[in-house]
Design goal:
The chain is α+β, with helices and mostly antiparallel strands and about 700 residues long. It folds into five domains: about 70 residues, Alpha-Beta Plaits (2-Layer Sandwich), CATH 3.30.70; about 250 residues, no CATH class; about 60 residues, Calcium-transporting ATPase, cytoplasmic transduction domain A, CATH 2.70.150.10; about 130 residues, 3-Layer(aba) Sandwich (Rossmann fold), CATH 3.40.50.1000; about 100 residues, Calcium-transporting ATPase, cytoplasmic domain N (3-Layer(aba) Sandwich). Helix 20 links the parallel strand 25 and strand 26. It is about 50% helix and about 20% strand. Helix 6 runs parallel beside helix 22 and helix 16 runs parallel beside helix 21. The strands form five sheets. A seven-stranded mixed β-sheet has the order 14-26-25-24-15-22-23, sandwiched between helices. The relative contact order is 0.09.
Length: about 700
């Protein structure tokens, strides 16, 4: 069984990893993932008893609370701000009194009050770690986290008479935690605004009655009323009349989209035209918006390699650092006249400097901000791991129809009216993009037993006769003799009981942004652009002649597309962009797959790593640039954090062993809080528009 548990106050990546470990140690838990960014816990468990134990562990983990709705952050920030304000109110008078040379015990008491005011949350978390350390066996790593490091550092500073430093450790650590929490919350809000796409109510029409209901209650086939200004509550189809939709919140396009009877209306759009009736075609749980939210929320579960490395690194790193600090405090004094007091300071500094906050916060935050940046550009991804793959792409391969072309088909001409009417009847129930061309054709025929023939067309029965509608290959493989048709349009052939009836010419146009988008890909490191299409060579050449394409392979079936895509991977990591319906095998073979126009398509969401929500090719080079920038920022943060911490640790040890200079504890605090804030700020650069 699976369950998503909403929480709040889980504001640390290390804490999330620790909570995940605790849950996975429980009997009956198959998989557990605590997500500190989306504030939720994903569980795969065996039974209700296991779930109850999981809920108990979550509710007793530090300050984490289980909530029914979306996680809140204002209360948490309020507590942090109050703690910092109270701490500063004690710290500043203590500092002034110390400068003035007042009684040291008075300043000591004020510093202690300052440390407790700022660090009570830290001390509480350390206290809560002790019982959790013995849950399901003995697990000392549960105790050895950043809260423990800060507590030891502060207590040690007070023990050696450095009360100012002891208070400063707690105060600055809490300031850093607040700024980090605000930064993470800001990135989280940039994505969770998508929740606003969902409508809170819908008007259900029952006969002559109208009833306001929750969109979750609507079922396929229900008829709803959309008034001017209403947000479309679920995916539906316009039954009659015409109206205009504001799709900006969903696709990023500010222009109104005109829709007529039979057109699909996606949840989240706003009706800016006439009051109209629409039929529900998908329940709320399967709508386009539901898919968007699901993609975004689950994106943090697919972690990139640097994220996985940092999580594993932190688990080993913290216990090692504690042991190293203990050795620094104990071993050197044994050879220097048992002067333990002199080496206690570098041991404390080592604990403060070594806190891995900068890494375990900034790395996942950079990826999350990258995912959020893509979402704002109309690109959804299933996980951070795909950003790394996207940044490596050297070969970009595209399907033609509906990807490089607009996919808005219309009938340009036909040889026989009967051919047009038979084709329209057979294509009515088809999911193929070409079927859209026949949507407005009224036909007296009723088609039955439709059977899609992959890559070639459709077979059906009309008035007891076998009808074939599709490509020239379909006709030839079924023994139908057809005349040569000289046309640069897509040609659909029609046969009845093995006899050629006629053909229909279908027109499509290249996307207006295709040329600029493909040109931009070349500047993003893509070395080769190829097209795989089932269309004829002449048609493909005519349509694509103005585009900067290196290779065109035409007349291919889906299986042949897969073979060509595999061979093209010899040129480097391969990206494939298609409609996500007929190109699933190729998407599976690609290193990175992108679905065009896949908003309402289950196949597109399932098969692809990325979905272009606005159906705009121009978003693809932006996505590659964002992926490359994310990778650079992650590397910068890892290198910067480790370099600064290593330098300060070495300086502290050299200072104490040589006596040439003294490293102040303020430098150690910068090695923790300062480095963390700089790394977080660097990660937040991903929020800028690409």
């Amino acid at each position: 069984m699976k369950k998503i548990i909403r929480i709040r106050n889980l504001d640390c990546a290390a804490c999330a990893a620790e909570l995940s470990e605790e849950l996975e140690r429980l009997a009956g838990v198959e998989e557990a993932h605590a997500d500190f960014i989306n504030q939720r816990v994903s569980l795969v468990y065996q039974d209700a008893e296991t779930l109850a134990r999981c809920l108990d562990v979550i509710s007793h983990f530090e300050e984490v609370e289980i909530v029914d709705g979306a996680p809140g952050k204002k209360e948490r920030h309020f507590k942090e701000i109050v703690s910092i304000a109270c701490s500063a109110a004690f710290f500043l008078p203590a500092l002034i009194l110390e400068i003035l040379g007042a009684n040291r015990w008075v300043s000591f008491a004020l510093y202690l009050a300052s440390a407790l005011a700022a660090g009570w949350i830290v001390l509480q978390n350390v206290a809560l770690s002790f019982p959790r350390m013995f849950r399901g066996g003995f697990h000392p790593s549960v105790l050895l986290d950043e809260n423990f490091l800060m507590t030891i550092a502060a207590v040690g500073a007070f023990a050696i008479g450095e009360s100012l430093e002891g208070a400063a450790v707690m105060l600055l650590y809490e300031v850093g935690e607040l700024l980090q929490s605000i930064a993470v919350g800001s990135s989280r809000n940039a994505i969770t605004r998508l929740v606003a796409l969902k409508s809170s109510s819908a008007i259900l029409i029952k006969g002559a009655q109208q009833e306001e209901v929750d969109p979750e209650e609507l079922q396929t086939g229900d008829v709803i009323l959309l008034r001017r200004g209403d947000k479309v509550p679920v995916d539906c189809r316009l039954l009659e009349g015409e109206t205009a939709l504001d799709t900006k919140s969903l696709t990023g396009e500010s222009a109104l989209r005109e829709v007529k009877a039979g057109d699909e209306l996606l949840e989240g759009c706003v009706n800016e035209g006439n009051a109209v009736r629409a039929e529900v075609i998908r329940p709320a749980s399967e709508s386009a918006v539901a898919k968007i939210l699901d993609l975004v929320e689950n994106s943090t579960e697919q972690k990139a390699k640097p994220e996985k490395f940092i999580t594993r690194f932190a688990r080993v790193y913290t216990p090692v650092v504690v042991l190293l600090a203990l050795l620094v405090a104990v071993v050197p004094p044994l050879f220097q006249g048992f002067n333990f007091a002199a080496w206690l300071t570098p041991a404390i500094e080592l604990l403060v400097i070594s806190c891995p906050c900068a890494l375990i916060i900034s790395v996942p935050l950079a990826y999350f901000s990258g995912v959020g940046n893509l979402a704002r550009e109309g690109v959804l991804t299933k996980g951070a791991v795909y950003l790394d793959e996207l940044a490596k792409v050297k070969v970009a391969v595209f399907d033609k129809t509906g990807t490089l072309t607009e996919g808005k088909f219309s009938v340009k001409g036909y040889s026989e009216e009967r051919a047009l009417l038979l084709a329209a009847s057979a294509e009515k129930g088809s999911s193929h993009p070409l079927a859209q061309a026949f949507a407005g054709v009224k036909t007296p025929y009723v088609s039955e037993n439709e059977r899609e023939i992959a890559g070639m067309g459709i077979a059906s029965e009309v008035e007891g006769k076998e009808i074939l509608v599709g490509s020239l290959r379909l006709m030839r493989e079924n023994g139908v003799e057809v005349p040569a048709v000289d046309s640069l349009s897509s040609v659909v052939y029609v046969a009845e009981d093995g006899r050629f009836v006629g053909y229909v010419e279908i027109e499509d146009a290249v996307r207006p942004e295709a040329n600029a988008a493909l040109t931009a890909l070349k500047t993003c490191g893509v070395e080769k652009i190829a097209v795989l299409t089932g269309d004829s060579e002449a048609r493909a050449a005519a349509v694509l002649k103005e585009l900067p394409i290196d290779e065109v392979h035409a007349g291919l079936l889906p299986a042949q597309k897969q073979e060509f895509a595999t061979s093209l991977k010899a040129g480097g990591p391969l990206l494939y962009a298609g409609d996500g319906i007929n190109d699933t095998p190729v998407m599976a073979a690609a290193d990175v797959s992108v679905a065009m126009g896949g908003l309402g398509s289950d196949a597109a969401v399932e098969a692809s790593d990325f979905v272009l929500v606005g159906d705009k090719l121009s978003a693809l080079p932006k996505a590659i640039r964002a992926a490359k920038k994310t990778g650079r920022i992650v590397k910068e943060n890892i290198a910067f954090s480790i370099a600064v911490k290593a330098l300060l640790m070495a300086a502290s040890l050299v200072a104490t062993s040589t006596g040439l200079f003294a490293l102040p504890i303020w430098a150690a605090i910068f090695g923790d809080v300062g480095v963390m804030l700089l790394a977080v700020c660097n990660a937040l650069r991903m929020r800028r528009k690409i």
